Amino acid sequence: MLPEERYSRQIRFRPIGAEGQARLGAARVAIVGCGALGTFQVGALGRAGVGYLRVIDRDVIEWSNLQRQWLFDEEDAREQRPKAVAAKGQMGKINSQVTVEAVNADVNAGNIEDLLDGVDLVLDATDNFETRFLLNDFAVEQGVPWIYGAAVGSYGLSFPILPGIGPCLRCVYPEAPQGAQPTCETAGVLNAITSMVAGWQVALATKLIVSGAASLPQKLATFELWDFEVRQVGITVDTGCPCCQGRGFEALNGRSRAPISLCGRNAVQIHERQAALDLVGLEEELKGLGDVRRNEFALRFQPNAQYELTIFPDGRAIIKGTQDVGVARSLYSRYLGR
């Protein structure tokens, strides 16, 4: 099949044309997170012919994901496949002309430079400000554009961060929002709002690749889908911003990774062990203490009916059955010795 056949309707769109399609084919994009936003981004950019997609995600597929995470199916949930791996498999069926690299990892200050090395653009599909501030630090320091996006309930927002051209995320949010914040677990989420936010991010990404970063609006877009309200607010550079103006990279200079309560799941991620784990040996150690299952990507251990630990080779663990960081740390220490 000739590329012109696959992308003919896109090439006929005059702002893209054949030249823009060639730019899409040469682009290298990283998508950080492969949940509701990320799966839509992978699918849309892959179908549009973006030549290289690096999909980075730390989690496995759960049944509750299927309501809004577009590339996954029931078999993925039954097998609890890593999200990045499953997304790569699906994209191989949709567009074999696109190179998809699946990375089953948690982005942190120690690995972000390696994980995002060599990409032209980063799309945010994460669920916490700790990671977003880290992405922002990396992008500003390296001069790589990234596109922020978030959604919960029926509300969503998106904003392009273009280093050297406009404001960064800390110009908008000097600090992470304080106090209890709604999550998919507490407030639920409409699949239409996740696709709307992700679609906006994909449109920004497409125009950036085709027409350059300066072509994008310096506006924060907000969506309240249940009331059908869409707004855009112009954002300017904060002259006192410690990141893009002061060149201070607090998140990037941090070496530790705090426990994170995972959005949409009654679970906490712990990543405090620095050494790699031998999952085969760990499986032997845990036998007799509960139900143990292992595949090439992770080990799943259920010591009782309340808790379940998914343990990865890099020492990361997702403790399901609690949102209490103290309880999660106690379980991590009890069974992994740290």
Walk me through the structure.
It is a single chain. By secondary structure, the protein is of the alpha/beta class. It has two domains: 3-253, NAD(P)-binding Rossmann-like Domain (Rossmann fold); 266-336, 2-Layer Sandwich (TATA-Binding Protein). 36% of the residues lie in helices and 20% in strands. It contains 14 helices and 14 strands. It has helices spanning 3-6, 8-11, 17-26, 36-48, 74-79, 83-94, 112-115, 129-142, 169-172, 184-187, 191-211, 250-253, 279-286, 325-336; strands at residues 28-32, 52-57, 99-104, 121-124, 146-152, 155-161, 219-224, 229-234, 260-261, 267-270, 291-294, 299-302, 308-311, 317-320. The strands form two sheets. An eight-stranded mixed β-sheet has the order 3-2-1-4-5-6-7-8, with helices on both faces. α4 crosses α11.
Helix content: 25-40%
Give me the side-by-side strand order of the main sheet.
3-2-1-4-5-6-7-8
Q: Using the alpha-carbon principal axes, give the shape.
A: globular
Largest sheet: 8 strands, mixed
CATH superfamily placement of the largest domain: NAD(P)-binding Rossmann-like Domain
CATH class of the largest domain equals: Alpha Beta
Q: Which residue ranges are poorly predicted, with pLDDT under 50 across at least 5 consecutive positions?
A: none
Mean pLDDT: 90
Question: How far do the termini sit from each other?
Answer: 54 Å
Task: Provide the number of structural domains.
Answer: 2
Number of strands: 14
| Tally of separate helices | 14
Q: How big is the Rg?
A: 20 Å
Instruction: Write the element-wise H/E pattern from the N-terminal end onward.
Output: HHHEHEHHEHEHEEHHHEEHEEHEEEEH
Q: Tell me the CATH architecture of the largest domain.
A: 3-Layer(aba) Sandwich
Backbone structural class: alpha/beta
The CATH topology of the largest domain is: Rossmann fold
